[in-house]
Amino acid sequence: xxxxxxxxxxxxxxxxxxxxxxxxxxxxxxxxxxxxxxxxxxxxxxxxxxxxxxxxxxxxxxxxxxxxxxxxxxxxxxxxxxxxxxxxxxxxxxxxxxxxxxxxxxxxxxxxxxxxxxxxxxxxxxxxxxxxxxxxxxxxxxxxxxxxxxxxxxxxxxxxxxxxxxxxxxxxxxxxxxxxxxxxxxxxxxxxxxxxxxxxxxxxxxxxxxxxxxxxxxxxxxxxxxxxxxxxxxxxxxxxxxxxxxxxxxxxxxxxxxxxxxxxxxxxxxxxxxxxxxxxxxxxxxxxxxxxxxxxxxxxxxxxxxxxxxxxxxxxxxxxxxxxxxxxxxx
Amino acid sequence: xxxxxxxxxxxxxxxxxxxxxxxxxxxxxxxxxxxxxxxxxxxxxxxxxxxxxxxxxxxxxxxxxxxxxxxxxxxxxxxxxxxxxxxxxxxxxxxxxxxxxxxxxxxxxxxxxxxxxxxxxxxxxxxxxxxxxxxxxxxxxxxxxxxxxxxxxxxxxxxxxxxxxxxxxxxxxxxxxxxxxxxxxxxxxxxxxxxxxxxxxxxxxxxxxxxxxxxxxxxxxxxxxxxxxxxxxxxxxxxxxxxxxxxxxxxxxxxxxxxxxxxx
Lengths: 331, 264
Prior knowledge:
Chain A is an alpha/beta fold and 331 residues long. Chain A has eleven helices and 13 strands.
């Protein structure tokens, strides 16, 4: 059953174009020029209950605007939108009871108080019975290992700890949909990994539908069975995440660190040097040649070695470069 | 209802974090009373009455009106609403199942309850220290009207500040609106000078505005004066509240759809 449906969903913004300098500022008092930006362009979308969907795209692609429309924060310019049968921007409490949204840079926590205080507030806001509240709270405390943080002032917490708390607050009322906008932004790899683990568990055990926007490849690859790639407000891929990366991820980045100055031999075709110092080499290699190259490089005794995926932006550019018409997976 | 009580409670808890803030608020109240005591002491040095006020009734008026004007802390609402609209974080209130205006009312109630206690204590202590013979009305009906006026006045100011905050949906920058409101309020509420000292023509015009009924009239009623204006005052401020509420509903309903939510 589809719980989210959009049809030709479009959002346009008007943006003031100010001319530079004092003269430009004065001119702006008399006459202003505006430009129209199409942030989301005739986007069709269907999402079923229990799905874990990744929204991918470069900055300004329209991901966050889409999430804002799905949560009712902003109204579409045109097109149809339905979430649980509601028109989100009507902001009905019955609708808001059913979802939660966590935006990496927007907080629901009261920074001067403890998380326990915020949780109690949200218990009342969502009308959660006491017994149910205690069970849910204890479940998340166990899951996130945050027992010792419950009575600590939020402002004293690290970014990673705060994000865990944001998630607990969001999940307390057991929403049917969880919208996550860059939940791992600014987090270190350990905290990001923990957050990913929690989200996976919530999706699998509670059946919560999760819509995730992220710039981090790892978030999308680990969590989302389905990915939707958006660029310039349009959907350019909608399908299986593994297939997406299989098809469009061509290169990997290998970073080698050495304790002593090292000179690498001449590289075979398909391997490129991104940067090089006597102690550090950064190479780009085609996916197929990665294991072969790693085998060769190990002979030089690097003190550290890391293999990274290509950035999402690069993949999006590649998909976009192929042209939308050639993509079978676009629904 | 329970959710709004919890919202009020969380704002009381938030206030309790800042000890210095409380101390300065009390100090401010005390300083104002001390200043008034010295000022009016000089004015009343050579006379026993000014515009029908004795020294004691003037101080009573000043203490009550000062207490009431400080009780209204809704100023923060307009800046909170407008700033959050401008930086895109107003969505914080839009995504939770609450009535946003009621959320702010509960927030205000929490803040007022907290500071009100301290300011009441400060005013009470100074009445004793200066041995002010507090001139208070003996008519229970008038006292009831005064309290109703105080409640409606607080509600009106909250509505006004919330409305001005919402104008950021249309105008982005609302500094000018706030400046006009602040100057108007300071003058018309009578928190600077008792309005009775002003020419009758000006007072008649002011009576059409709601601000006259926020601090000035309840203060006068509580010190046992102007009882005949109590009921008309209640009607007028009530009508203003209804009108402003209608304006809020229309403005929010229309401009909410224009909210871009841009920012961080």
